[in-house]
Design brief:
- The complex is a heterodimer of chains A (108) and B (871).
- Chain A has 108 residues and is an alpha+beta fold.
- Chain A contains four helices and two strands.
- In chain A, strands 1-2 form a two-stranded antiparallel ribbon.
- In chain A, helix 1 crosses helix 3 and helix 1 crosses helix 4.
- Chain B has 871 residues and is an alpha+beta fold.
- Chain B has 26 helices and 23 strands.
- In chain B, strands 1, 2, 3, 4, 5, 6, 7, 8, 9, 10 and 11 form an eleven-stranded mixed sheet that branches. In chain B, strands 14, 15, 16, 17, 18, 19, 20 and 21 form an eight-stranded mixed sheet that branches. Chain B has a four-stranded antiparallel sheet with strand order 13-22-12-23.
- The longest helix of chain B has 45 residues.
- Classes of the chains: A alpha+beta (108), B alpha+beta (871).
- Chains A and B meet through helix 2, helix 3 and strand 2 of A and helix 1 and helix 3 of B.
Chain lengths: 108, 871
Amino acid sequence: MAKSPELQGALDLLILKSLAHEPNHGFGITLHVQNASEGLLRVEEGSLYPALHRLERDKLIRGEWKVTQNGRRARFYRLTAGGRKRLADAEQNWSTLAAGVAKVLRFA
Amino acid sequence: MSWFRRKRRDEDVAEELRAHLEMRAEWNRASGMPADAARAAAQRQFGNSGILYEETRGVHANRFLEAAVQDVRYALRGFRRERAFTLTAVLALALGIGGATAVFSVVDRVLFRALPYPEPDRLVSVGVMTPLDTTEFMFSASYVDWQRVQTPFESMTSFGFVVNCDLTEASPVRLSCAQVESNFLSTLRIQPLLGRTFTTAEDVRNGPDVAMISYGFWQSRYGGDPKIIGRSISLNGAPTTIIGVLPAAFEMPRLNHADLLVPVRLDRNLAPGLPGRDIRVFARLKPDVTVAQAREALVPLFAQFLPTVPPAFRSQVSLRVRSVRDLQTEQSRLASWLLLGAVGALLAIACANVANLLLARSARRRRELAVRAAIGASRGRILRQALTESMTLALAGCVAGCAFAFALLRAFIAIAPSGILRLEQAHLDGRALAFSLAAALASGLLFGMAPALETARAEDLTGARSVGARRGLFRQTLVAGQIAISLVLLTSATLLMRSLWNLEAAPLGFQPEHVIAASFELGPSRYPTGVRQQAFFEGLEARAAAIPGVRAAALSDSLPPAGGTRARPYTALQAEGHERYTRDTGGMIVWRFITPDYFAALGIPIVRGRGFAEEDREPSRNATVLSQSLAARLFPGEEAVGRSVSFGEREPWYTVVGIAADVKNNGVAEHASPEYYLLRRHGSDPVYASTPMRGANVILRTALDAQAAANSLRAILRELDPTMPVKVQTFDERVSQLAVRSRFDAALVTLFAAMGLLLSAVGLCGVMAFLVAQRTPEIGLRMAIGASPGAIAASVIGSAARWTAAGVLLGAAGSIVATRAIETMLFGVGARDPLSLAIAAGTLTGVALIAAWAPARRASAVDPLEALRVE
């Protein structure tokens, strides 16, 4: 996904939604997004990590070091209460936007 | 964020990214890739890990701070490139900030710092103002009444005199004992360091003899002995118990030196009608009561007190309640503000100078800034860079200024050996350094504004010169402002110098040259009676007169020209054949108790009749000498010699034997008060019996070396009483000490004015040089079409002269306003003295034209070919 500010919102939404499903590390998030979108969306590392740390700085998610099933140390993120609230707002906005855009596309 | 946490976070980010790469590689391997291909693919997909690391880490970085560090580095690099500019700017700032810091550390104790008592603003001095004294006091009878019924104060306390007292033990010393009430320390809210304060049972007549000692005395005499409490010492021959030690920071509210506190023992049951002794009264205001309300609440008490005052005094007696700080700083406040104002002006001049330097620099750097703007630096970023540069300069100036302040403070203390309020306490402490930092930051903002407000525009890359003229105008206005402030400083300095000159040259009415004086006071233990004291004085007089080289030797209870003499209201006096003056006190009349050689020793001319003779010292003879002004007042238009005068209602009549010339007797700066002289007579002198005076001064007029006579005098006094401290001084020293404050103020203001003048001259020179450089092509053109070098130089000087004239006009107006504030500090010269203003303006104009001369010469030496090639 690109780095333009309009799409940053979309990236944040994907990250938050993915973490709402289950706490995960960065690599896990890229896999989850890819699988859930059936290969349509791919999150780039170059955008993911700055976005994760920005969300953490803004206290929407919290990261901590844990050990994965494969016995590897990784930084796991999970939603905070603020993150859950932000996710609800973002989902609402996104649906409205998507519905609006779809209508306009159909109309034309 | 702390450095450790930041480092930790950075390591976290690196590890997190590494973990991601490895997981991706593992994933690739699991989907069937060979190991190195899996790693390479993961790395490829990951992109530039360095950039990603920086970007991720940067989310947490304090962007503002990092940019600031970058700005400071950039600024320092620039300053290193331009050494001359940096040195000049830092030097100017060091002068301004250093001067301000040094003066602040001197006046801080006087103007701003809390007095060393808890809640010092609640402490007031209470009393009545009378012609008898220059500050307020009370009589103990009314004080006892007021203390009982007053409402505005939590507590009210008093101290009597600070008197000499003798420690009569092995190695006896003369000490100062302050007589205080038992609630004195509790009202000031001072706890003793050791032991306790006085009880009310100790503060009564015939109570047990107890004393508290000062920290300094405890250390110097008893080596800080912790078991000092309860020790018995011999004070004036009486065994006295030490019950407490005062804290090191303790000071008397009137700043008197006191080695010991002893109970004052006021008589609380005085017979009606007796006023009691005079005391100094202090009180602590109740919460929420203001000084004005307290005074208001005391008015009814004052109204009851007034009828007890002799009628002649009533119209000149008033109630006074004021804060202890006001009491302490009465004399020094104006001078302190004056010095602070002078350094403030100096700092403003320095700021204008640095602003001008920065403007010139930013004109040189216009291309650089334009490049930065062109490649995308926002206006805010460039503004911040400019402010960072000025702040960096300001801080460098602050550091250099503190070093300068340290040296300056040493110099202040050196030129003012004594007599400046709290100067000995002044040093560069945290407060002074904080002030210096604040001054630096404020000036950094002030002079940083000028270049920061200049917008950097990409258009400047074209090198168009249209903005130059506007900027020149701003810079010249700055210089005119500098010149105006300089003129105010110079005028004040000139006024103070002229005033000092007048003070030093003021006729004293006597000849202080070749005169020495020794001051001493007889101790109470060795000289308990008037007879013993008089015997000492007579022995001393005879021996002093026999010192080789002495032309006249006299004794007196006080010395001119200082004040603090004995005095009586004029209404107490009566001239033979005239009514007593009764409208009011008529002012105070000074009197002195002297031996016959007094007039000869001091060189005071006898204008009519004769001075005292040896025969007049018979106790049966009552002779007096009047000063010229007193004689003229008592016997207007008549011959006074041979007439009689009485100096008090129940006192004998004295025959006027002579009239002496008027002598300064209230300090040098005041008018001389009328004065009369009484003679110390032999045997049982009735005057001495009624007014015992332990203190006396020996006055010697010498024909030979004054130092030798002083040594002989010291030897005689030591022989007569080895325990008695004696102060021997030449009269010239005494007189010059009276002007110490004026000399200090005048020297400092002149120093600051000179520095201001120098900075203004440098500023003017810099601006003219800048303008000449900017006008070089124009000058070249003019010369090419026939202008002479002289005409070019004249045009440069003319432009400097115009701005100087504008500054001088502005400064003259400012001076007229500013100097009015120091009017009361001046002696023999008015605040609007046109000569002082003219001297200052002349000096300033002269220096300004000299400063403009070098750039003018450079302009006239411009080579037209060279200049035109630039364009």
